[in-house]
């Protein structure tokens, strides 16, 4: 959705004091604490859109808000909420059926990087206007690298993002495999065709639960004091090395002694502290995470083709990669299906900017997912909404009864998206003017694809088809459905009843410091 296209970013500080600079609606509503119960209903609708499609979350909020605003006028006129609800339901059904007829372009198969990037650009431009070409090309490249033979099985989780401070966006690139922004712990930095063991427990000497006092009587006892546990540790790591394991992934701490033995046995060690990353890694190498220190069974051990350390803009990162047919060094004798992963390595000057770039990429990947389910696209830039508003209004004029007023108001509510777009891009005063140009062009035959030109090269309008500005039909359809449902849910409420928060009476706050004298 190009709803907050060149709208300004919001600087947001959440309840933990963390700073966000973003225009992503999903992030904003997730980080602010919405208290009002009716507003929470709209937030839930927006979160449902985020879970279902990953894009057009702001469209849900804007449209639901506008539908409620229009409903207020109808209520003041004396219409009953049930009439408005009925009208909104009729208008929503009409809008969804008309939306099916507005599709002008479908994603061609087989997918190519160019066609995929052009379909992603509008979604990414709404978050990162000006950087959409570079980001769309990165996302398309990463998605095609991991595309399974049946595109319906595309897994969003297999496109990872690693943020490395420094440099500019132009220095970003796609790396095949899973990238971790740290070096391996020991001396071994590169291993090929290796067995992998994943441990969630600490690789260290076990500490006893109780404290004990050791009395040492002579020098020999002093020298032999730690030999026992050293031998025990050596035995464990020798067993691991003898089982053929060449790479260990540790989810917790690694002791110095453990590292010494692992280096001696030629085993590479990488620490991955995030349990989510550890889970993904287990899926990539096909391993079972172990909670005990010891040699893994053949079923528990994973396999990786390449484990190496490379340099990205002065930072050294570790890459785990599975080779597929066509790659140099691919061995056709390896068994089992391999999970392919691609990582987009992002470069940027500040962590906030990198976070925002990551959110734009996240939206792009979700758009691919929704397009693989339904490849149909409709004109973007607000063109579809104006055309739907026109058709719903015509439908409303032919209705009898009080519901027709609500249907017509629904049509005017749909105008909020092109209007917001025009106001964000061209300034508040231009919104109505651009909208009247759009209405005039949509009244003409074949004018369905006229949308808002955010760069205002002529009269603020452009043909969305010619400029390849498309939105996913499925995302648009869900947004309209969820926004209408949220508005109807609020309209069907006649009173809000809130219980007091649990927890008994509050402790009275004392003035000044508790330790101060009276």
What does this structure look like?
- It is built from 16 helices and 17 strands.
- With 518 residues, it is of the alpha/beta class.
- It starts with 9 loop residues before the first strand and ends in a 27-residue tail after the last helix.
- Strands 6, 7, 8, 9, 10, 11 and 12 form a seven-stranded mixed β-sheet that branches. A three-stranded antiparallel β-sheet has the order 3-14-17. Strands 4-13-5 form a three-stranded mixed β-sheet, with helices on one face.
- It has helices at residues 25-31, 37-52, 57-77, 81-101, 113-125, 132-145, 219-224, 227-242, 256-264, 275-285, 351-373, 383-397, 403-414, 416-426, 430-443, 473-491; strands at 10-13, 19-22, 105-106, 159-165, 173-176, 178-180, 191-199, 245-250, 268-271, 289-290, 302-312, 315-321, 342-348, 376-379, 450-452, 461-463, 470-472.
- β15 (450-452) and β16 (461-463) form a beta hairpin.
Task: Write a compact overview of the structure shown.
With 518 residues, this protein is an alpha/beta fold.
Helix content: 40-55%
With helices defined by DSSP (H or I, 4 residues minimum), what is the helix count? Answer: 16
The computed structural class is alpha/beta
From the alpha carbons, calculate the radius of gyration and give it in angstroms. 29 Å
Q: What's the main sheet like?
A: 7 strands, mixed
Low-confidence stretches: 1-6
The total count of strands amounts to 17
Percent of sequence in beta strands: 15-25%
Rounded average pLDDT? 77
N-to-C terminal Cα separation, in Å? 62 Å
Instruction: Give the overall silhouette.
Output: elongated
């Amino acid at each position: 959705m190009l709803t907050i296209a060149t709208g300004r970013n919001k600087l947001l500080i959440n309840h933990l004091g963390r700073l966000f600079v973003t225009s992503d609606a999903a992030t904003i509503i997730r980080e602010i604490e919405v208290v009002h119960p009716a507003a929470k209903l709209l937030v839930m609708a927006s979160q449902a859109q985020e879970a279902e499609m990953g894009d057009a979350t702001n469209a849900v909020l804007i449209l639901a808000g506008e539908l409620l605003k229009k409903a207020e006028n109808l209520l003041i006129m004396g219409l009953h909420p049930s009439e408005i609800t009925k009208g909104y339901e009729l208008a929503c059904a009409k809008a969804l059926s008309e939306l099916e007829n507005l599709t002008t372009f479908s994603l061609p198969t087989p997918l190519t990087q160019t066609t995929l990037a052009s379909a992603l650009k509008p979604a990414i431009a709404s978050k990162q206007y000006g950087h959409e070409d570079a980001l769309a090309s990165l996302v398309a490249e990463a998605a095609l690298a991991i595309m399974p033979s049946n595109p319906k099985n595309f897994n969003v989780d297999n496109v990872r993002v690693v943020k490395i401070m420094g440099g500019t966006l132009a220095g970003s690139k796609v790396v095949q495999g899973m990238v971790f922004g740290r070096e391996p712990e020991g001396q071994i930095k590169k291993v090929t065709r290796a067995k992998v063991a994943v441990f969630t427990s600490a690789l260290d000497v076990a500490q006893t639960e109780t404290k004990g006092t050791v009395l040492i009587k002579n020098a020999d006892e002093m020298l032999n004091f730690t030999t026992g546990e050293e031998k025990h540790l050596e035995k464990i790591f020798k067993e691991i090395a003898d089982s053929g394991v060449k790479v260990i992934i540790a989810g917790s701490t690694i002791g110095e002694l453990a590292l010494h033995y692992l280096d001696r046995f030629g085993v590479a060690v990488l620490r991955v502290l995030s349990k989510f990353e550890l889970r993904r890694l287990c899926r990539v190498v096909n391993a079972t995470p172990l909670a005990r220190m010891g040699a893994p069974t053949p079923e528990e051990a994973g396999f990786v083709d390449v484990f190496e350390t490379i340099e990205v803009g002065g930072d050294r990162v570790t890459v785990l990669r599975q080779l597929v047919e066509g790659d140099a060094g691919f061995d056709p004798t390896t068994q089992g299906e391999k999970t392919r992963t691609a990582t987009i390595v992002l470069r940027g000057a500040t962590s906030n900017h990198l976070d925002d770039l990551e959110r734009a990429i996240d939206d792009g990947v979700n758009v691919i997912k929704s397009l693989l389910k339904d490849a149909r696209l409709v004109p973007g830039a607000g063109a579809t909404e104006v055309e739907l508003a026109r058709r719903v209004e015509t439908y409303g004029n032919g209705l009898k009864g009080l519901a027709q007023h609500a249907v017509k108001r629904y049509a005017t509510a749909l105008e909020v998206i092109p209007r917001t777009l025009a106001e964000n891009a061209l300034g508040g005063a231009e919104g109505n003017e651009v909208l009247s140009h759009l209405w005039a062009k949509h009244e003409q035959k074949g004018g369905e694809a006229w949308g808002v030109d955010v760069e205002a090269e002529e009269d603020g309008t452009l043909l969305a088809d010619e400029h390849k500005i498309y939105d996913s039909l499925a995302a648009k359809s869900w947004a309209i459905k969820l926004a209408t449902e949220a508005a109807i849910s609020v309209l069907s409420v006649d009173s809000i009843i809130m219980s007091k928060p649990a927890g008994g009476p509050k402790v009275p706050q004392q003035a000044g410091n508790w330790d101060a004298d009276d």
